[in-house]
UniProtKB/TrEMBL annotation:
Homodimer. The keyword Chloroplast does not apply. Residues 9-126 form the Acyl-CoA dehydrogenase/oxidase N-terminal domain. InterPro entries: Acyl-CoA_dehydrogenase, Acyl-CoA_Oxase/DH_mid-dom, Acyl-CoA_Oxase/DH_mid-dom_sf, AcylCo_DH-like_C, AcylCo_DH/oxidase_C, AcylCoA_DH/ox_N, AcylCoA_DH/ox_N_sf, AcylCoA_DH/oxidase_NM_dom_sf. Residues 241-388 form the Acyl-CoA dehydrogenase/oxidase C-terminal domain. This is Acyl-CoA dehydrogenase family protein. Belongs to the acyl-CoA dehydrogenase family. Its cofactor is FAD. Keywords: FAD, Flavoprotein, Oxidoreductase. It comes from Microtetraspora glauca. Residues 131-226 form the Acyl-CoA oxidase/dehydrogenase middle domain.
Length: 408
């Protein structure tokens, strides 16, 4: 039985190259770089880093080689994403950051040849950015069958009206993948009512109202009001009525890619926790010698171990073409929660220093909170996991299939 948690030598070499590139090129170039400062200098530096990544052969790790990528499977991608996410701009520099990463997969799988040339090629080249417009403020974001944004056929065009929010990257996007209801006869709560449209931006009828402020400040997540937006029928992506299927296809691997990046942040927090513990002296010994602190470290190490195993197993199922929905749901729920818990423990070990902005922990903690509802709230994933576990038992008399189908 082949269970091997080592990487092939060529993939280990890729991991080493990504780690070196992040540490020796991206971090020094971006330290002290202020996005709110001289805009021309900021753009020169970050786009220069993209050219360096392309020259180093570290461009598009998630895309097939015939489309200019590195051709990595999801298991190999896990180690690239986790190394890249050691710094905030890492995934963007390698052109494998959300939401563009998920949109690339979507266009490759669902796009016509014309749509791939018009939208996917520039996205792969890094000359444009994109957004995915599905979430709405009036309905539960975890239930896309309730979408109210509607599209009405008018000759060879569709007239779209609606309201979207938390649309990541919208202000920088050259196009959007917009999900709208096109089938009024399909009841709410039933799949098959929505369609995906490719929308060129900027465009009359698409109003970017504001960039929503969150607990960690401006985020690049926009609120959009859509009024009589006209889109040609040829801009439908993936076929009429397939909006839900397209969205779910996109979100599965995208959820796991988030987990890969979150593992990197959790590991950074654990490293900082241990470093603080071995160097901070208090009440006759270092913090590392105190049982209370040791338990915080031990709990974090165990959780991180679980996170890595879950992500690697789910990634292997995707690579094998197996049903990965339960495993990705489990990983997304568990890794998101672990991220917050591990960072919180690291802050506790740092004391007041951790609560300040003198270390990155406070900002990491603010960023981490969104993980528990982005791409599916904790409660939705737990509900789906329970449903599949019950279904597995009813079908086979055992829950084994719902717990990874592992040989244990």
């Amino acid at each position: 039985m082949a269970i091997d948690f080592t990487l092939a030598p060529e993939h280990e070499e890729i991991r080493r190259r990504v780690r070196t590139f992040v540490r020796d090129t991206i971090v020094p170039a971006t330290e002290g770089l202020d996005p709110g400062g001289r805009r021309d200098e900021y753009l020169r530096v970050i786009f220069g880093l993209r050219e360096r990544a392309r020259a180093e052969g570290l461009w598009l790790p998630h895309m097939p080689k015939e489309w200019g990528g590195m051709g990595l499977g999801h298991v190999e991608l896990a180690m690239v994403q986790s190394e890249a996410a050691k710094t905030r701009l890492g995934p963007w520099v390698l052109n494998c950051a959300a939401p563009d990463e998920g949109n690339m997969h979507t266009l490759l799988h669902w796009g016509s040849e014309e749509q791939k040339e018009r939208y996917l090629r520039p996205l792969l080249a890094g000359t444009v950015m994109s957004c995915f417009a599905m979430t709405e403020p009036e309905v539960a974001g975890s239930d896309p069958t309730l979408i109210r944004t509607n599209a009405v056929r008018d000759g060879d065009e569709w007239i779209i009206n609606g309201h979207k929010w938390f649309i990541s990257n919208a202000r920088r996007a050259s196009f959007a993948i917009l999900i709208a209801r096109t089938e009024p006869d399909v009841p709410e709560g039933v799949r098959g009512a929505t369609t995906a449209f490719l929308v060129d931006l900027p465009q009359e009828g698409w109003q970017d109202v504001r960039e929503i402020e969150t607990m960690h400040g401006s985020t690049g997540h926009s609120e959009i009001v859509i009024t009589d937006l006209r889109v040609p029928d040829g801009q439908i992506l993936g076929g009429r009525g397939n909006g839900h299927r397209l969205g779910q296809y996109r979100l599965g691997p995208a959820r796991l890619a988030h987990c890969m990046r979150w593992i990197s942040q959790a590991e950074t927090a654990l490293d900082m926790m241990v470093d603080r513990a071995v160097n901070r002296y208090s009440h006759g010994s270092t913090l590392a010698e105190k049982q209370g602190v040791q338990w915080l470290i031990a709990d974090s190490a165990m959780e991180l171990y679980q996170c890595k195993l879950m992500v690697l197993h789910a990634a292997s199922k995707i690579d094998k073409g197996e049903d990965f929905r339960t495993e990705v749901s489990m990983a997304k729920h568990f890794v998101a929660g672990s991220l917050g818990r591990i960072i919180d423990r690291a802050i506790q070990v740092h004391g007041a220093l951790g609560y300040s902005t003198d270390t990155p922990l406070a900002h990491m903690f603010q960023q981490a909170r969104w993980a528990r509802f982005a791409d599916g709230a904790d409660e939705i994933h737990r509900m789906r996991i329970a449903e599949r576990t019950i279904a597995a038992y009813r079908d086979t008399g055992s829950t084994s299939a719902a717990t990874g189908g592992l040989p244990l």
